[in-house]
Amino acid sequence: MMEFIMAQGRINILLTPTEHRAFQKLNSPPKIQDFLDTLPINFELDGETYMSPRRVLRERTAHCFEGALLAAAALMYHGKKPLLMDLRTAPHDEDHVVTLFREGIYWGAISKTNHPVLRYRDAVYKTPRELAMSYFHEYTFPITGKKTLREYSKPFDLSRYKLANWLTTEEELFWLVDALDESPHLQMASQSALHKLRPLTEFEIKAMDTTEWKPKKKRD
Q: How many Cα neighbours within 13 Å face the side chain of 83?
């Protein structure tokens, strides 16, 4: 707790006036989610990126990890714990990262995604596991419709790390992605249960076969 209080105090020193104004407006999970929804998806057309919140605000684009960091920073700015959750999939699919928040005893999640599912979760879940399970049914591999979510991380507290190393750095945050990936994860279901999963129907697959943002031409 002391580490969080100290880190939360230092955030004011690191941010520019423009960044302060941006974070001041993002004073609730719904407002943070609404802001993330205005940002085009970062398709990484010029190569893999893991941008800090400072860079996301400047570039006005984000993928799930980058959006989760920005959301965590905004929550921290307003005195909340900056917590991430990694949703880990089967090897042939891609993981997803969300930002956790609490309203009283209930958990919710802020999420940046390009698809109809894996989105915002209202704070109605009693535990992080219950929240993670809310993503299970729709987390599927394109075309096959097979459910691919396998593990979720325990709440990952960013306040353990030096703020300048993730909030305002210009460097790619590969180290932080690795730290999250290597943090404790819990299984979604037993192997016997996973072997019995029913794939989504063609109708369900078709209903989810849409995206919000289209990639622009690669930069020269």
A: 15
Extract the tokens encoding 182: 């290597």
Cβ–Cβ under 8 Å, residues 10 and 73: no
Q: Are the beta carbons of 49 and 66 closer than 8 angstroms?
A: yes
Supply the pLDDT for residue 220. Answer: 44
Secondary-structure breakdown of the chain: helix, strand, coil percentages, each rounded to the nearest 5: 40, 20, 45
CA distances (Å), origin 65, targets 7, 69, 97, 172: 21, 6, 5, 12
Name the region of 108 (left: φ>0; alpha: ψ -120 to 50; beta: rest).
beta
Q: DSSP class of residue 76?
A: H
Q: What is the pTM of this model?
A: 0.94
Please name each of the domains of the chain with its CATH number: 2-208 (3.10.620)
Alpha-carbon span 53 to 215, nearest angstrom: 21
Q: What is the pLDDT of residues 179-190, one digit of tens each?
A: 999 999 999 999
